[in-house]
Amino acid sequence: MTAEERAAATVYTSGEHCPMCAAAHAWVGLGRIVYVSSSEQLAAWLTELGVPLPPVRTLPVGDIAPGVVAQGPVPGLDEQVRELHRRFHQ
To answer: Which residues contact 32 (CB under 8 A, 6 or more apart)?
Structure first.
């Protein structure tokens, strides 16, 4: 993809990028991110389920890559992702 194509791209994902992915997203100049569930939600859900948090801090994309437009969570769909985590961890 050209730089212009990357900047115009939208990445759709079930979960907000981790810090490493957010940094890579910004470094290559991709456009906006649309995510269903946030890193904050993930941390809360894992805590509720008694699951250890990931080894990398769950930070919002904006804390890592302030120039990247990130939209989410998506009401309703986020609860579906929560249910998937519940089923996976129990």
So the answer is: 10, 11, 68, 69, 70, 71
> Could you give the angle at which helices 77-89 and 39-49 cross, rounded to 10 degrees?
40
Instruction: Please state the pTM of the whole predicted model.
Output: 0.90
Largest CA distance in the chain: 44
What is the C-alpha separation between 14 and 81, in angstroms, rounded? 7
pLDDT at residue 12, rounded to an integer: 98
Give the count of alpha carbons within 13 A of 46, CB side only: 14
Q: Which residue has the tokens 């940094």?
A: 23
pLDDT at 13: 97
User: Which residue in 85, 87, 79, 86 sits closest to 36, CA to CA?
Assistant: 79
> Any bridge partners for residue 15, and if so which?
37
